[in-house]
Design goal:
The protein is mainly alpha-helical. The chain has a single domain, classed as Orthogonal Bundle (DNA polymerase, domain 1). The protein is built from five helices and no strands. The longest helix is centred in the last third of the chain and has 16 residues, at 69-84. The protein is globular, with a radius of gyration of 12 Å.
């Protein structure tokens, strides 16, 4: 069974090593700033989100395409975070 610390480290690695530089930056910075403060349900959802295609994620975060309902709230938080980093 994966420990909570190992899980956070795995998700951090997956956030920073996406395959596209844009999503590396968006998810990596979000992860560094916010991941440790997420509750269990949000961590589970974020873990699922990490399995999504980068091109889809980028379109959802930038508002080009609506995110699926199950990810919509989390995507809004990530988009707000990305927009606030200047």
């Amino acid at each position: 069974m994966e420990t909570e610390d190992a899980r956070l480290k795995r998700m951090t690695m997956r956030s920073w090593r996406r395959g596209t530089k844009e999503m590396d930056i968006i998810l990596g910075r979000f992860c560094d700033d916010r991941l440790a403060g997420l509750g269990r349900d949000d961590l589970d959802l974020y873990d699922e989100l990490l399995s999504e295609n980068d091109q889809d994620l980028y379109q959802w975060v930038t508002g080009q395409v609506p995110a699926p309902a199950r990810f919509a709230g989390l995507i809004a938080v990530i988009a707000d975070h990305a927009g606030g980093r200047g």
